[in-house]
Design goal:
Length: 186
């Protein structure tokens, strides 16, 4: 399956985001942060430039065609984005999204969000499958993600998708998070 093409998996079409969908991405990002906590909202607001006019269109363009970031969406109907996942790839020696460095290429899954009415329908599994296929295509051997230790349902869902708890805990703006890893070449 070509990752760049829309692929129907389960009930949803999963594909890479399109640059012109920047307004939808902005809304999903704010919604995801609002559900987490006021701290998350202020975190995303602080990263958005004051003029903000070009931030979201540029972010969507990069996620649609970049080599180090890709965002995938699950679409139930043409105007119904059910969920999203973003993958970040960091070059050897460069700081990643949590400011760690490694002598190897690193990848992280961030920004996982599924609208409440679509949860429990396999959306996360479909999104992760598309994201992992893209990561394999750019030569990533292992991917990690961080999930708040209080989010037991997502932790269980990630385990079903092959993610294992690394034993590492990371302090993030939403609290203490479990690091989970998945070997992409097993």
């Amino acid at each position: 399956m070509a990752v760049e093409e829309a692929a129907t998996l389960g009930l949803y079409a999963v594909r890479r985001v399109k640059a012109e969908e920047w307004q939808r991405l902005k809304e999903l990002s704010w919604r995801r942060c609002a559900l987490r906590s006021p701290t998350w909202l202020s975190s995303i607001a602080s990263r958005t430039p004051a003029n903000g006019q070009s931030f979201w269109p540029e972010r969507a363009e990069t996620a649609a065609g970049g080599a180090t970031v890709a965002q995938f969406v699950a679409v139930a109907e043409p105007d119904d984005v059910a969920g999203t996942v973003t993958a970040l790839v960091t070059a050897p020696g460069g700081p990643d999204h949590i400011r760690e460095t490694s002598p190897n290429v690193r990848a992280a899954i961030v920004g996982v969000y599924v609208r409440p009415r679509h949860r429990g329908n396999g959306v996360v599994q479909d999104l992760l499958a598309a994201t992992e296929a893209w990561l394999r295509g750019v030569g990533v051997r292992q991917v990690r993600l961080h999930v708040n230790e209080g989010n037991t349902r997502p932790i269980g869902g990630y385990r079903k998708c092959g993610y294992m708890d690394s034993g590492k805990r990371v302090e993030m703006s939403g609290g203490l998070s479990h690091e989970m890893v998945h070997d992409l070449h097993s």
